């Protein structure tokens, strides 16, 4: 079957036209400012388990939201109905809400001077993120079954499965506001993964592997994902106890990005103006070793969060978050920036691709460098206090002795304080996990308290 013609440009133009109609309704109602978001999403997901199809789901969604400002009073409403009467009613609802809200000195659109500007052709640049996949349900099922079979068939100790899944989605979005800004975006997202179970009874262990990409051709093959899932699951068999103590801890790349996530939470505007962060008043202070840096790269080709503008239309820009170990700025949208007496950093809606600079080699190199300690491959629980930075989470992974992995460990707890943990980072590997907009290799900490199972 030939792939359907790509009508995304025409559909984006239609959404942009709807946004202008909504803004016209807002002006007619007397709003001093207004903003509109319109989106269309479609996707397909398939799940199989033990060689049988469990679910096949096709989705198609549409949404429109409008926010109006009367001075510094704000109201919002949403609909999925594009009929003119429904658009007018949605604006009326937003205006009615605004009239009953209190003034908020920080409310309003981002400053007009900060809006992103389109190119000479009137369009914003794209970053090679539009690769829709004309995936039929039967083909998706075959891919998932092949992935699971490659994992299950490789070793007799793989006795069960949590299944394999394939998904593809595509989205179209328009953001427009009364400054005259109209920004359109389109993107696609694809994934393939498998989770397996090895062993019997109380000795069973579970692990898996997955691949995600913006272009289907960038996905790992079903067979390689299945085999990788099997290898990871088998490696977890026969976990042994370790003594409680303080040891170096090496976070494998896919869990190391959670440390960066805790940093982002602590330097985000919402946490700061609510005074719910252990990093209050920390811009300009040294938090990390002097070789450590984090840069935001919003213009990366095929970056998961590449964008020319943020959720408020503010132009994105490349900039350091951490440089030479020093926190250079917070992560702010316009509302939180005003609450803090600062200017937006173009991060309404989140950060746009972070790159953490490496100073070490592969994971194997880092294991050898660590010598003796804990390699963490999985984290459980949410034991992080955002106000104090105290950190305590369940973990699983491998015990390292003499620079080599000796055996699996599970049921342990690792604890510390994030401020101290950041300062105690010894190395960042070059084994970057590219399956996220936070691009980091494995991270080695000099020491954490490990509550073992001895």
TrEMBL record:
InterPro entries: Metalloprtase-TldD/E_C, Metalloprtase-TldD/E_cen_dom, Metalloprtase-TldD/E_N, PmbA, TldD/PmbA_N, TldD/PmbA_sf. It comes from the Bacteria. GO terms for biological process: proteolysis. Residues 131-237 form the Metalloprotease TldD/E central domain. Residues 244-452 form the Metalloprotease TldD/E C-terminal domain. One of its GO terms (cellular component) is cytosol. Keywords: Hydrolase, Metalloprotease, Protease. One of its GO terms (molecular function) is metallopeptidase activity. Residues 34-98 form the Metalloprotease TldD/E N-terminal domain. Belongs to the peptidase U62 family. NCBIfam families: PRK11040.1. This is Metalloprotease PmbA. It comes from Luteimonas deserti.
